[in-house]
Amino acid sequence: MRSRTTDYLFVGALAIAGVFFLQFVHRPAVRGVESKSRRLMATEAEICKSDDFTRGLDDLERYLQEFEQALADLDRLVPGHIDSDERVREITGVASRCGLAATSIRPDQPVPRGSVMVHPLTVKVCGGYEQIVRFLFEVESLPRHTRVTQLTIQREEETPGRLRAEIQLTSHSAAREETGARS
Predict the structure, then answer these.
(1) Are 153 and 127 in contact (CB under 8 A)?
(2) How many CA atoms lie within 13 Å of 135's alpha carbon, on the beta-carbon side?
(3) Torsions phi, psi of 149, nearest 5?
(4) Beta pairing class for 116-127 and 163-173
(5) How many alpha carbons lie under 13 Å from residue 85 in its C-beta half-sphere?
(6) In 3D, which of 89, 156, 163, 93 has the Cα closest to residue 133?
(7) Is 0.70 surpassed by the pTM of this model?
(8) pLDDT in tens, 14-64
(9) How far apart are CA 98 and CA 128, in angstroms?
(10) HSE-up (13 A, CA, CB side) for residue 128
(11) Is the pLDDT of residue 183 over 80?
(12) How many Cβ atoms are within 10 Å of 92's Cβ, its own excluded?
């Protein structure tokens, strides 16, 4: 009987040791693992948020670069100020490159149109049809936004095959300029 009692005591001691182990070793270890697992998931979530944020920063940086380029293009096409003398030299150079004789280039008074100023320029040239067409193309291809708004072509009576053209060009500037009136 002693062996049965010792067996029961041994099994009881093992059961008490198992309960003790579960209560004081295993459960705290499981709680620690669960706690670390929650912190790990929270950290991973924060990393994902920061990755999204940095991706957003990259997109923002790219957008700002594109915006700055668009502003530079706008400033090139529609500058804040137009120098009439420089414009006359530019158009004279284009006419010369196209083989045209520029008989008159007259900058007209700037006209306000909303938030921009329209700068008309009247150009009179003489030459062949192909030269005039090339001139029109090159003027509208200038870095500054310039458009042909009016065109009159007449045949020169004195020289067969030559034409006389009067061309109204317009450019724009973003800033309002004084039109000569002083307060």
Answers:
(1) no
(2) 31
(3) -105, -15
(4) antiparallel
(5) 0
(6) 163
(7) no
(8) 888 888 888 888 888 888 888 888 888 888 888 888 777 777 777 778 888
(9) 10
(10) 6
(11) no
(12) 14
Helix, strand, coil percent values for the chain (each to nearest 5): 55, 25, 20
Give the integer Cα–Cα distance in Å for 127 and 124: 10
Written as six digits, the tokens of 49 are 């948020």
**Contacts of the segment 133-136: beta carbons below 8 A, 24+ positions apart:** 134/98, 135/94, 135/95, 135/98, 135/100, 135/167, 136/167
DSSP SS3 for 171? strand
pLDDT tens-digit map of 117-162: 888 999 999 999 999 999 999 999 888 778 899 999 999 888 888 8
Residue 102, SS3 per DSSP: strand
Rounded-to-integer distance, Cα 180 and Cα 157, Å: 40
- The type of residue at 100 is L
Residues 105 and 152: beta-carbon distance below 8 Å:
no
Q: Which residues contact 134 (CB under 8 A, 6 or more apart)?
A: 98
116 exposed, middle or buried (CB, 10 Å; 0-12, 13-18, 19+)?
middle
Q: 123 forms bridges with which residues in the sheet? A: 105, 167
